Amino acid sequence: MEAAGKAGIILNTFCGGIGTCKKCLIKLEPSGQAVLACQYRIKSDLTVTIPRDSRFFEHKYLAHGIETDIDGVADIYEKYLEISSLDKIFGIAVDIGTTSVVAKLIKMIDGECLATEAALNPQSKYGDDVISRIAYAHNEDKLSELNRDITGCINDLVIKLCHKTGVNAHFIYEMCVVGNTTMNHIFLELPISQLGQAPYKAFSLDAHDLPAWKLHIAMNPAGKIHTVENIAGFVGSDTTAVALAVDIDSAEKMTLAVDIGTNGELVLGTKDKLYAASCAAGPALEGARITCGSRATEGAIEAVVVNEGDIDLEVIGNCPARSICGSGLIDAVAVMLELGIIDLTGRFVEPANLKDKVSPAILSRICEQQGEPAFILSDSGAADKIFLRQKDIRETQLAKAAIRAGIKLLQKKIGLEDADIERILLAGAFGNYIRKESALRIGLLPDVPLERIVFVGNAASSGARMALVSQQYRDKARELAKKIEYIEIAHEPEFQDVFADSILF
Ligand code: FES
User: How far apart are CA 74 and CA 192, in angstroms?
Assistant: First the structure.
């Protein structure tokens, strides 16, 4: 695994390299023997073949967020007026996600976004969730390694942005960085081991302002890098930025902001009181731990709909289906529920009981795979069959239950029924691709009318842009991070019961 990383090839590491996900298979040559890259020790020179399915391909990045009007308050540029002319002061807003990194080149005088670039977070080669990164950075050298990876990635994005726009990197004076608490700490090279053990404390929740040269960022060395405040160990500055971008602080209506990923982050409340929580959904909704699952990459089924007697699929890249990603998974499970193929407990219904209820085409998709009942989504002949089996339905239930239980526990904290939630803002890469109807059908979100659910795109990036150009927004971010009360939902006495209840569809 490390050798592949050094060669610049990032393998799938859904289980963080502990040998359980089987997504990192490689072939030893010339024998063709298949081994797990994360478990195999190299003793001498070796030739291997890395199958396409084991590679971590770049997936659809969500670079765009809601655009918030920031006219009139941009003032950070003023501190550079002595050394640069007004039209030559630029900044970069960066959102460091566990999986992807998004950077925007911004005109500091008015906050206009000139270009956006995104890349895979190169730390993914050490594991695809924050826990495996924390485990990897068990000493200072390893932490520095992760830090070098992310600064190198940001520098590459800066070069690309400059290339795209013709802006000289020398005129980039300011950078604002947001990310979850682990990403924030790695970027600042702060200790992270305590984030991996209860009570999961951040080393620092504060904003930091550091000279660019100190963090080895390729911009004007006289420039500054600003990181936004974190809220708690598992709710980082990206959530602060989302809260800033959607202006949840002035919400008159009861608002729920949800950012769905390996960790789901939630903020619920109004301008009077705001609560946040983090739910460990695991990577199933990102396609991991699902037999035919993958990230949102070419060949992945991203949508499933019922048409007149059968189902239709949408596949990324309009090619034969090779896998299914998170949004496709949620659609597929919703469709299976709708057709009665699985029941409310998630169990496959006996095909004999479906004969009069579904069309012959649908019935022919029900079969057995790896000793379990399964539903074939695609059998194009171009690749193996793409299906969901009983185990995959269970994994989906566990992931959706983690998020829904988190939401329910926050609702209980305020004393809210589902109908009391007046707006649900879905943020983040995944949130933007799921279909609202399907998310409601499988019970991922509270039962509210469709029109109350709004996609807000990469709101963390938008919040970073706001804090990049304006002191007023930096002050607001600080207030928000203090004001939002973090709830450790796993410590709530009702957690187990609410979680078990949320497993049902
Ligand atoms: S089995 Fe190797 S990374 Fe999961």
Answer: 33
Q: Which atom of ligand 1 is nearest to the CA of 39?
A: 2
What's the domain range around 268? 250-283+395-458+489-503
| Contact (Cβ atoms closer than 8 angstroms) between residue 397 and residue 346 | yes
Euclidean distance between CA atoms 314 and 311, whole angstroms: 10
CATH number at residue 46: 3.10.20.30
Backbone Cα Rg of the chain? 23
- Do 37 and 1 touch, CB atoms closer than 8 A? yes
Model pTM score: 0.83
Q: Are residues 115 and 241 in the same domain?
A: yes
Scanning the structure block, which residue is given the tokens 């890249």?
Answer: 317
Cα 61 from chain centroid?
10
Within a domain: residue 85?
yes
The identity of residue 298, as a single letter, is E
**Cα of 172 to ligand 1 centre, how many Å?**
40
> Can you tell me whether residue 490 is helix, strand or coil?
helix
Determine whether the shortest distance from the Cβ of 19 to ligand 1 is under 6 A.
yes
- 63: in domain: no
Q: Is 21 in the pocket of ligand 1 (CB under 6 A)?
A: yes
Q: What pLDDT, in 10s, does the model give residues 2-47?
A: 787 667 677 777 666 778 778 788 999 888 899 999 899 888 888 9
- Measured CA distances, 397 to 239, 330, 332, 387, 482 (Å): 25, 10, 13, 16, 34
Number of domains present in the structure of the chain: 4
